[in-house]
Structure formats: structure tokens, C-alpha cells
Amino acid sequence: xxxxxxxxxxxxxxxxxxxxxxxxxxxxxxxxxxxxxxxxxxxxxxxxxxxxxxxxxxxxxxxxxxxxxxxxxxxxxxxxxxxxxxxxxxxxxxxxxxxxxxxxxxxxxxxxxxxxxxxxxxxxxxxxxxxxxxx
Length: 135
Fold this sequence. Notes:
Elements: E1 2-11, H1 15-25, E2 32-36, E3 41-48, E4 51-58, H2 64-72, E5 75-83, H3 86-95, E6 106-107, E7 113-117, E8 127-131
Parallel strand pairs: 1-4, 5-8
Antiparallel strand pairs: 1-5, 2-3, 3-4, 6-7, 7-8
């Protein structure tokens, strides 16, 4: 079952310059930033109610996010949906012949489980599924 929109990720070329819109003009608060070496990005987290906007700045020109930025320019990268059981959700999607990037969940450094659905199956939108784990 889908619980909520966990986050919307936006690719930017410069985190600090992007803050002029998201924080200074729009008024969102910066929760924190993280260096995510495994994805070759620096991320700024901007809470919005129970969800957040994540600004992604690639730090390696060869990374997937850098290639995305080069090809498509800055903008929405993916929509993340929080689910209660990622394994069951992936099985249901696979049974419905949805094209998956990750057929099995990936375990993040913080213990969360995530997987991506190919944009070809989601009307051109890269969709991330996300299951929080008990702490």
C-alpha cells in the first residue's frame, strides 16, 4: 500500500544558487544537507508538511544524476512514494508487467529500502519506492 509522497527530487547544478528560490523566495526551511557518495550527489532537504523536496547536485560528471542534468537540464528528477511493504509492491508491479529498474530492493546506508520504476512504465516519470525501516 502506498502511504504518502515521501519526497520529490529536483536536479540542480548548484545547491547554493538554488536556495535563492526554494528558501529565500519560496520560504521553505533547509533541514540539512548530506553528501551521498553512493549516488555521487550532494542533497539539500527541504521539508514540506509530511513530505520533502530534495535538491540533488551531482558531484561526479560520470554519475547518473550528472548525465540526467546534462541531457535534460535542471528540473524534477523523480517522485518518491513511501510504501508499507516494498517487496510485495515490487512483486505486484512485476506481475502487472511494469518495467522495474530494481527488481529487488536496495538497502541504503541508513537502512531504508528503495527501488526505482522505469519511466517507460510511469508516463515518463522516474518513480522511487521507499520503505522506512524500524529504528
